Amino acid sequence: MATNTDLTGCWSLVVPLKPLARAKSRLGRAAGELLRPRLALAFAQDTVAAALACPGVRDVVVVTDDTVAAAALSALGARILPDTPAAGLNAALAHGARSARKLRPDSAVAALNADLPALRPAELARVLEFSSTFPRAFVTDAAGIGTTFLSAAPGVELRPAFGGPSRSRHLASGAAEIRLPGLDSVRRDVDTGADLRVALTLGVGPHTADLNASVSPAHDR
């Protein structure tokens, strides 16, 4: 059932981030273990900065227990929330959504991956505008299997089911799939060296771009 509620400028986004020592493990093969945690942080910085630059976004809540990431993302304007459930990705997202709703009960909330270094505010704005007409909506990742974005209108539970083939789980839960064209930057999460090369082609944010020269020419297949 669609809703016509005007949610312009009323979105709270929840961005989950693992401790950097464990983040983006599959990227280590392409980037090396020394660069991997730095790239994970750079991805998150560019994601958060782009989200905060989107006119539809009121605030960004980052759920993380990493002190280095917390300081860097707080400096960008994000609100940091410790992962007190410590029960995995979806528990962290539900925790972040509850915190956002406690602060701003009338806001729509959305979960956004932390590994979208090519994210463009204008594309995210289109996603938010489209999402505002549905109780829950989501964006499938570039592989067509996972999810990079999941929204819930005011008063609607987020019900995140991220991880693995989450597209099918979100569809089964009744969330509307957003199939708008031209959302490459919202769909392009980065888990592997191949993913990173595509993101670089799209055009990444400044934090990831600054590390690009250090990326090893080796890559996974």
Would you write up a description of this structure?
- Helices cover 38% and strands 15% of the residues.
- It is α/β, with parallel strands linked by helices and 221 residues long.
- It has a 7-stranded mixed beta sheet, sandwiched between helices.
- It is globular, with a radius of gyration of 16 Å.
- The protein starts with 10 loop residues before the first strand and ends in a 9-residue tail after the last helix.
- Residues 1-5 and 216-221 have low confidence and may be disordered.
Strand order within the widest beta sheet: 3-2-1-4-6-5-7
Main sheet: strands, sense, barrel: 7 strands, mixed
Shape: globular
* CATH domain class name: Alpha Beta
The CATH architecture can be named as Alpha-Beta Complex
Strand content: 15-25%
- State the separation between the terminal residues, measured CA to CA: 42 Å
List the domain count as a whole number.
1
Secondary-structure element order, N to C: EHHEHEHEHEEHEHHH
CATH superfamily: Spore Coat Polysaccharide Biosynthesis Protein SpsA, Chain A
Please report the total strand number as a whole number.
Answer: 7
Number of helices: 9
